[in-house]
Write a sequence for this structure.
C-alpha cells in the first residue's frame, strides 16, 4: 500500500504492480468523474442517504443491495482495512467503481470499543437499542465518568480489479444516557458532537451531513479524486 498525502492507495492487480516497477503508473490519474455510475457498497440503509448527500447528486448511485451483491465478512481489524475490503468486493463482483464506508463508535473509557465491532454489538437483529444499552452497561462495569467518544469513518473507492483509495475522518464528542432523538441511525441518539448540545439523533440530518466523521472523510476523498 502506498501512502500519498492524506490517503492510501492500494494495488492488488499484478499489472499495476508491474506498472509501478516499470514506472508506467506515473501519470495515471484516478478520478471520480461527475455523472459516472458508482456502487455504494453498503447494506446499511442508514448510510445510503448520507453517502448520497455527500455525493451531492453528481453521480448515478446504485447500492450493493439493489445489485444483489452479497455482504462480505468484515475480517480486518481496522476501519481502513474493512472499508478497502468492502469496496474491493463490490467493485470486483459488479465490474463497476465502488465506494464503501466502514465506520463506528469508539468510547474513550472502553479503550476504543466497540470500534470496528460497532455493528456486531447490535447482534444479528441489528438492534441498536441493545447496542446502546451495552455501551451504558460497559461504562457502569468500568465505573468511569469519562463520557468522551468519537465516530470514525473510513471511505474507500475501488476500481474493478484495479487500484483503491482510502481515507479516514474522525469526529469527537460526548456520550449521553438515556439515548435522545429518533433521527439518524445506529448510535446517533447517544452521541453529542463537540460544540453542540443535542445528539445526532436530535440534530437536523443536513447538519450531521455537514460536520460528521463521514463528511470529514469525504472532504479528503474529494481532494484526492474529484476535480
Ligand atoms: P455496511 O458494512 O454494509 O456498510 P454496517 O452497518 O455493517 O453496514 P459497519 O460495518 O461500518 O457498517 O458498521 C458500523 C456501525 O457503526 C453501524 O452499523 C452503525 O451502527 C455505527 N455507525 C457508523 N456510522 C454511524 C453514524 O454516523 N451514526 C451512528 N452510528 C454509526
Amino acid at each position: 500500500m502506498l501512502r500519498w498525502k492524506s490517503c492510501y492507495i492500494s494495488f492488488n492487480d499484478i499489472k499495476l504492480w508491474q506498472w509501478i516497477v516499470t514506472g508506467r503508473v506515473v501519470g495515471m490519474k484516478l478520478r471520480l468523474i461527475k455523472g459516472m455510475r458508482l456502487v455504494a457498497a453498503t447494506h446499511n440503509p442508514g448510510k445510503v442517504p448520507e453517502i448520497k448527500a455527500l455525493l451531492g447528486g453528481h453521480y448515478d448511485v446504485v447500492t450493493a443491495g439493489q445489485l444483489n451483491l452479497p455482504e462480505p465478512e468484515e475480517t480486518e481489524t481496522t476501519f481502513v482495512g474493512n472499508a478497502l475490503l468492502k469496496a474491493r468486493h463490490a467493485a470486483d463482483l459488479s465490474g463497476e467503481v465502488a465506494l464503501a464506508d466502514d465506520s463506528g463508535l469508539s468510547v474513550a473509557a472502553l479503550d476504543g470499543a466497540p470500534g470496528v465491532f460497532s455493528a456486531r454489538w447490535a447482534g444479528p437483529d441489528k438492534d441498536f437499542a441493545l447496542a446502546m444499552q451495552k455501551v451504558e452497561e460497559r461504562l457502569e462495569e468500568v465505573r468511569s465518568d469519562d463520557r468522551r467518544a468519537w465516530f470514525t469513518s473510513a471511505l474507500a473507492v475501488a476500481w474493478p480489479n484495479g487500484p483503491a483509495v482510502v481515507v479516514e475522518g474522525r469526529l469527537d464528542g460526548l456520550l449521553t444516557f438515556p439515548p435522545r432523538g429518533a433521527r439518524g441511525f445506529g448510535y446517533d441518539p447517544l452521541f453529542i458532537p463537540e460544540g453542540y448540545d443535542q445528539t445526532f439523533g436530535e440534530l437536523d440530518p443536513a447538519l450531521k451531513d455537514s460536520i460528521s466523521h463521514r463528511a470529514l472523510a469525504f472532504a479528503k476523498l474529494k481532494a484526492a479524486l474529484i476535480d
Remarks:
- Residues 4-225 form a domain with the Maf protein fold (CATH 3.90.950.10).
- The pocket of inosine 5'-triphosphate is lined by residues 42-44, 47, 71, 74, 86, 101-105, 118-119, 128, 151, 184-188, 200, 212 (CB under 6 Å).
- Confidence is low (pLDDT under 50) at residues 13-26.
- The chain has one domain: 4-225.
